[in-house]
Design brief:
With about 325 residues, the protein is an alpha/beta fold. The protein is built from 13 helices and eleven strands. A six-stranded parallel beta sheet has the order 1-11-8-7-5-6. It has a three-stranded parallel beta sheet with strand order 3-2-4, sandwiched between helices. Helix 3 links the parallel strand 2 and strand 3. Helix 2 packs parallel to helix 13, helix 7 packs parallel to helix 8 and helix 7 crosses helix 13. The radius of gyration is 21 Å and the shape is globular. The chain starts with a helix and ends in a 5-residue tail after the last helix. The N terminus is likely disordered. NADPH dihydro-nicotinamide-adenine-dinucleotide phosphate binds next to helix 13.
């Protein structure tokens, strides 16, 4: 095994490189470039934001960040930065970690009634004492920019217009823009959370895919995944989906974001990726999805890289939802 200094110098002896070659090697799959699509979505929003600004006012997003979770702070900072870049007004609320559900509701209620607020985002995860269901029931559905409320989810089940959860909506946008056909194809979603797994399964179903949802109690997960023409991995388990799980030529969407700090694992997963290895040597960690990267690249027909795949779309869709809600409120546009 080579050392971090080997990695930093990119100087790995050839015999230490593990050759990766899968039995059903397809070819190098097309990269579904989330950064590029995210830029396109943002560019398309600019004239709509300009129209709102010149006719009425700038769209406005309220962001509620409870406590001081470091990851949440970074997510919120990025969301506010995206607002600033596009000319969307952001309002930040920073309640303390030990706030009660009732106190939080008192802070959110005025936002629900504020005619100058178009979207309200409550950054997850919330501290354990907060009752998320109560919170979601109180959130004005017309400001539910994340699409997490029972109302928005019910509308999704019925395939009726409402804000859609940003990550799954971003995945659908990516598939659409890369002209990946969905109707009649077999889609397998690994993960059944309310924010990713269930909504993406419903969205694919509404586009006439034949959908299977897998979870931690699924028997023969590899066998289920191998049947997928479109495989969506949203489980939060680093590189758990290996070559045996992927049908040659499948489209693979890797939603997982996992921070790897184990050097041997980084070397095993990215044996030829000098940039990645140098990054690890410098920072002591690297991001990996739920799918083994080399397997995904070699066996799929198209795949989302981590980072740079699904992640950038989540914020772009948050901006899109904010603009849509502002247009509905200020210009009387329909939700469709
Ligand atoms: P959750 O932890 O809420 O859900 C994980 C799901 O995966 C659960 O349904 C769980 O099953 C299932 N699961 C876990 N382990 C296994 C296993 N070994 N086999 C089969 N199924 C399993 O996660 P989220 O949905 O919130 O997020 C999933 C991943 O996506 C995370 O890595 C997260 O960081 C990432 N993410 C990325 C976003 C982005 O913008 N790129 C946005 C949101 C999430 P069960 O229900 O039985 O417990």
């Amino acid at each position: 095994m080579w050392t971090p200094s080997d990695i930093a110098a990119f100087g790995r002896p050839a015999e230490k490189i593990v050759p990766l070659c899968y039995p059903h090697s397809y070819m190098s799959g097309t990269v579904l470039d989330g950064k590029k699509v995210s830029r396109e979505i943002r560019d398309e929003l600019r004239p709509r934001i300009d129209a709102l600004r010149s006719n009425k006012r700038a769209p406005a997003l309220a962001v509620v960040l409870v406590g001081d979770n470091p990851a949440s702070q970074i997510y919120v900072r990025n969301k506010i930065k995206a607002c600033q870049e596009l000319g969307i007004r952001s309002i930040e609320l920073r309640p303390a970690q030990d706030i009660t559900t009732e106190q939080l509701l008192e802070q959110i209620s005025p936002l629900n009634r504020d005619s100058d607020v178009d979207g309200i985002l409550i950054q997850m995860p919330l501290p354990k004492q907060i009752d998320v269901n109560t919170l979601n029931l109180h959130l004005d559905p017309m400001r539910d920019v994340d699409g997490f409320s029972a109302y928005s989810l019910g509308r999704l089940v019925r395939n009726e217009p409402a804000p859609r959860a940003c990550t799954p909506a971003g995945i659908m946008e990516l598939l659409k823009r890369y002209q990946i056909s969905i109707a009649g194809r077999r889609a397998v979603v690994v993960g059944r959370s309310d924010i990713v797994g269930k909504p993406i399964a419903l969205m694919l179903l509404h586009e006439n895919a034949t959908v299977t949802i897998c979870h931690s109690k699924t028997r023969d997960l590899a066998g289920e995944c191998r049947r997928a023409d479109i495989l969506i991995a949203a489980m939060g388990r680093p590189a758990a989906i290996t070559a045996d799980y992927i049908k040659p030529g499948a489209v693979v969407v890797d939603v997982g974001v996992n921070r790897l700090t184990n050097e041997a694992e980084v070397v095993r997963l990215f044996p030829h990726d000098t940039g990645r290895l140098a990054g690890y040597a410098k920072n002591g960690s690297t991001l990996v999805g739920d799918v083994e990267p080399m397997a995904m690249q070699e066996i799929s027909s198209a795949y989302t890289p981590v980072p740079g795949g699904v992640g950038p779309l989540t914020i772009a869709m948050l901006m899109a939802n904010t603009v849509k809600l502002a247009e509905m409120r200020l210009l009387g546009k329909s939700a469709g």
